[in-house]
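Researcher: Next entry in the queue.
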Amino acid sequence: MIARLLISATRKSSGKTTFALGLAAAWKDQGLRVRPFKKGPDFIDPAWLTRASGHTCHNLDFFMMGQTVVLENFRRYASGGDVAIIEGNLGYYDGQDLEGGDCGAALAELLRAPVVLVVDCKGAFRGIAPLVKGHLDFPGGEWIRGVVLNNVASARHEQRLRAALERYCPMVPILGVIPRTRAMEIDERHLGLQPVAEGEAPLERLRVIREMIAAHVDLDRLLALARSAPAMTDIPPVVAVRPGEPVAPTVRVGMALDEATHFYYPENLDALRNAGVELVPFSMLSAEDLPEGVEGLYLGGGFPEVFMETLAANRPLLARIRGLAEAGMPIFAECGGLMMLAERITWGERSVAMIGALPIEVSVEKKPVGYGYMRIEGGDRLSWPGPGVSVACHEFHHSRVTRIGEGVEMAFRVVRGFGVDGAGDGIVWRNILACYAHVHAQGAPGWATFLADFWRSKKTK
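Model: Structure for this entry, 461 residues:
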């Protein structure tokens, strides 16, 4: 038996993340072992959910993983907990598939999870009733077992909302009413919420959210609803890609991990370790040198543009990385890591020199350059994923490569998305591979083994 709730909403930016965070933290404070999940490819919300629950959050993504792996991952990572919280993305019925095969309702059906629908009530009164009733009556609405009213302005506003729902939607209980307040809002930037890794202010905001949710929702009724979910044994067993057995490390790799660089899927890191990679964290912002004995580097995604002056000021480390790159150290970089390897980052009137290991320059633009699901196809340049083999992945970047030096090659053809230049991704330059694509190891067979071999075969002697 896995008690579980899917937290969704009528549309994006309705407050489901805030509600999911507060609920996870409040249940944790009650002594419950909370297992958090996030639908979709996001990095930021899972980091917040990890902090709120005290347990690693795992993504459930139909596009990158497929339905079988989504179900198997939920079984695996929810086990041992008292209750699982799955935060949806977009609206409950939103997705890529016109038939709804990848939306929140499809996930609820797959996991047989009761759904709590968060409704943004700003400017709404009686009109909330047809909105909720439409969700209940649409295919998949049978999993909606309660609503939480968010952004409620006053007691009178609440009274009118309750009256409308009790009159037209008496079958669905109101499980919480969250008042309109700036105190619970998490600051946003160009790619979503401010990451929880950035200092103490986000942690204080999380405390406020926990207290507000505990005071304004019915925690006991929500837990009872989660426990009403059918036993997972009622769902036919599946066979999916399972984590391999850990092996003795054969290559030591420095992994950038700090406020500027922290977008890593936990399953990807596990897959690399199981392929024989020892990952050694270091800070691009404050470390004076790389960890001792590293033979390669992994520079993940993040927000280097937000910290670009601090990064640029750490010249000894940047010079050290450039020198090692020129001496042959193998480096793999994703998105933010690609930006840091560039010669220069420009954002509006600000422009700073970066590592300079790649003969490229990058600018940060106001609108997204690459945003959403992506598909890349292998070519002859690398052994992975193989010529003509496509991999489902995603990209989220406002940065654009504005200059590419001679001799730079692209490892992948972009079938869907933008990548580096709209046609290709995966910059190959000497011993460096840098791409905008974020892959998930469970939807990219051979990725971890390829990288382990890349770091081993190219490491400096």
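Model: The domain at 4-234 is CATH 3.40.50.300 (Rossmann fold).
Researcher: Noted, moving on.
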